[in-house]
Write a structure and sequence with these properties.
Length: 68
């Protein structure tokens, strides 16, 4: 089981949001954004910040993949 954040990056493309914009909006570090890109684990508070700023649900930015 793994978490994929591909939906987040697709949403960012659809809304024309750059990584720098996401960093500025949420206060996240580039390291945390890199973790998201790699599909690494992040704190739920990180996902909460993103959802609040993008006005979306967790299911809009992440999904669980059972294939590994």
């Amino acid at each position: 089981m793994a978490v994929s954040y591909k939906k987040l990056f697709k949403l960012m493309i659809d809304r024309d949001i750059k990584k720098k914009d996401l960093k500025d909006m949420t206060g996240l570090s580039y390291g945390t954004i890199a973790k998201l890109e790699k599909g690494n684990n992040v704190e739920i508070s990180v996902l909460d910040k993103i959802c609040v700023e993008l006005k979306c649900q967790l299911s809009d930015i992440a999904e669980i993949s059972f294939d590994r």
